[in-house]
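USER: Note each token:
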Amino acid sequence: MSAFLGELIGTAILILLGNGVVANVVLKHTKGSGAGWIAITVGWGLAVFVAVFVVAAFSGAHINPAVTLGLALAGKFSWTLVPNYLVAQFIGGALGALLVWIQYKDHLDTTEDGNAKLGTFCTAPAIRNDVRNLVCEAIATFVLVFAILYMVEPDVGLGPLDALPVGLTVVVIGLCLGGTTGYAINPARDLSPRIMHALLPIAGKRDSDWSYSWIPVVGPTAGGLSAAALFLLL
């Protein structure tokens, strides 16, 4: 498997399982309907675990543009490989969202709440405040990337043995910091599925909230780069 394919597959697995647990909890008539925030945060953490474990040997399992940029700035990843990784991650995010739509289409179509439908694809703030939401995304991603920088192999990324600590890091971020914005902490996790929400035929869907869409891209990017800057300083 090439590094490009590894990042594409890894990000697709991440979004399939991560957005899958959201769909299972928030949509009507699923077996997990109403299971709550704990189920979502644990599901996302395990999604990261599976994705990292599967593709770490092939690409270093960045599966997140903020991680790729942070590793590059910290000198742990070549800048020449960054565009290739970013393209793979955004394609993988779209593929994962497509698979969630296939898996849960009947439940998407029978759920009346347009916000719940949107939530199975992308994030939204609990209280809309662009500046605060941006800062919250940056802080949460800072924690993720700062932790990862102390786990990575030189010039590679994450290895299979890092899958569990990274997954646990995502769980604790969700439990402790995710209540404000839904903790995108990954531009490919939010933007690609948001585009798919706009494109896919979903009965009764609302708009894709493009006025908010820049925050889960800029915030995580800023947080990842800030983590790398502090890592270098230390």
Summary: Residues 3-229 form a domain with the Glycerol uptake facilitator protein fold (CATH 1.20.1080.10).
